[in-house]
């Protein structure tokens, strides 16, 4: 099935590619607890299935399908000898899930206990070697794997060693940082994940370490089992420094860390996930995969093309099913009329104009909360690309700004499809553009208060298009 949004002849899309919703951060019963070993023995602790993640991998896949997902990744995190558990028990369960729910493309992966940092997804390409590939990575580099524990495994050099190993694999995996500011103690006061680390990861393995969660999971933290709100619940589990509109501070702040990385020209993409362990209806803090957050990848419905879409940044993210499709197309307004889409690059002579067309599907259907949210505003954001920074801890790009805000008076609607066009005049330096939108009236996403209803505060974000202009 091809794309459903009407498009002009100036919009090139690969045959068979469409926007496929997915989730790359999902836990099962193989995210275990551990039973302490008998006193005085050297035996490793015994894993206890279902002590952290609750559900089976086939059930997660079934729920993902029920909530509109077309792809997912099984990402259980580790502990002592967890690589053996993954190899012997989790992988056969994944094969069962693939057989029972073939409508959902399912990847083998894990939530990596990242050396020197917090957590991250490892997404392994589907192949006959996927089982041993993940075992080799986890057994050699997951910081919680050894028993007794070894502090030398929890260092940034160990992570760079891991990335060097991963990039050497014939079919290398993808690594995406999880909840990057959950351990932050304030705005710009980062915890386990630091700007310099992300730069070092990306420099070491630019097609492996490709990005971070723009919006973390655990977005149901303020919802009680009966559907009422818990006044103490913090979205995403961000108890010390809150999310903004449900998004991590590294993404949500215009001119912040994400823009600083993009301003170097880095292909550093954002995603959005459930981090599903236990659903809120069962007393947990999570939505089912696809119930609230979705990461859309433009791809054919295959393992290979979905992973290619993630590496290539053909991604947008949304919460609450605010939108279901998003196309951003940048076209040179004169000359060869070159063009680029989300994740792509447009080459432009200095001083050229760029016509930006934004098309999105604002669905006239209820989301999984029974609401019919509608887009109130769309922002076009631009920032300059100036190359590598001298300060590896830099987290600001002062050139980044909202160049235009669009509301219903600015766009054309045909059924569910909304289109708006804007002309960027006299683009004189290399830049990038990205798009976000919301159902709120907030000009910038505000810090999320404890007890906030996540369904009332919805946003979508595109990944960037780069505009390359030769230096004069």
From TrEMBL:
InterPro entries for the chain: Pol/histidinol_Pase-like (IPR016195)
UniProt xrefs under SUPFAM superfamilies: PHP domain-like
Listed name of the protein: Phosphoesterase
Organism of this sequence: Gemmatimonas phototrophica
């Amino acid at each position: 099935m091809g794309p459903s949004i009407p498009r002009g002849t100036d919009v090139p899309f690969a045959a068979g590619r469409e926007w496929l919703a997915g989730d790359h951060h999902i836990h099962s019963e193989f995210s275990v607890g551990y039973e302490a070993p008998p006193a005085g023995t050297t035996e490793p602790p015994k894993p206890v299935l279902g002590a952290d993640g609750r559900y089976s991998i086939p059930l997660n896949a079934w729920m993902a399908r029920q909530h509109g997902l077309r792809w997912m990744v099984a990402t259980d995190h580790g502990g002592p000898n967890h690589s053996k558990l993954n190899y012997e028990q989790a992988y056969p369960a994944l094969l069962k899930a693939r057989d029972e729910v073939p409508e959902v493309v399912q990847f083998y992966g894990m939530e990596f206990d990242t050396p020197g940092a917090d957590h991250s997804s490892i997404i392994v390409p589907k192949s006959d070697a996927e089982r041993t590939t993940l075992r080799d990575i986890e057994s050699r580099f997951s910081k919680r794997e050894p028993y007794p524990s070894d502090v030398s495994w929890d260092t940034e050099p160990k992570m760079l060693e891991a990335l060097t190993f991963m990039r050497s694999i014939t079919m290398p995996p993808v690594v995406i940082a999880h909840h990057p500011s959950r351990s932050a103690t304030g705005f710009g006061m980062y915890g386990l994940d630091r700007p310099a680390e992300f730069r070092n990861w990306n420099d070491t393995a630019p097609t492996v370490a490709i990005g971070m969660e723009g919006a973390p999971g655990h977005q149901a933290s303020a919802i009680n089992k009966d559907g009422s709100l818990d006044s103490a619940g913090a979205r995403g589990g961000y108890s010390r420094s809150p999310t903004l509109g449900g998004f991590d501070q590294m993404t949500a702040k215009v001119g912040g860390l994400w823009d600083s990385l993009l301003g170097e020209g880095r292909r550093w993409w954002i995603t959005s996930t459930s981090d599903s362990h236990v659903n809120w209806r069962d007393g947990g803090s999570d939505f089912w995969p696809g119930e609230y957050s979705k990461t859309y990848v433009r791809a054919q419905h295959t393992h290979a093309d979905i992973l290619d879409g993630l590496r290539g940044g053909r991604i947008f993210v949304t919460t609450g099913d605010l939108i279901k499709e998003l196309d951003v197309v940048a076209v040179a307004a004169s000359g060869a009329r070159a063009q680029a889409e989300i994740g792509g690059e447009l080459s432009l002579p200095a001083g050229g104009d760029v016509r930006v067309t934004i098309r999105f599907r604002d669905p006239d259907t209820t989301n999984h909360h029974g609401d019919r949210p509608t887009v109130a505003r769309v922002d076009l954001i631009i920032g300059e690309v100036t190359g590598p920074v001298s300060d590896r801890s830099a987290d600001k790009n002062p050139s980044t700004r909202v160049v235009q805000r669009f509301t219903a008076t600015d766009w054309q609607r045909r059924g569910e499809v909304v289109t708006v066009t804007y002309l960027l005049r006299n683009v004189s330096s290399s830049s990038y553009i990205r798009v976000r939108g919301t159902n709120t009236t907030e000009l910038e996403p505000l810090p999320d208060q404890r007890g906030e209803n996540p369904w009332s505060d919805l946003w979508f974000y595109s990944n960037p298009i780069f505009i390359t202009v030769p230096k004069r």
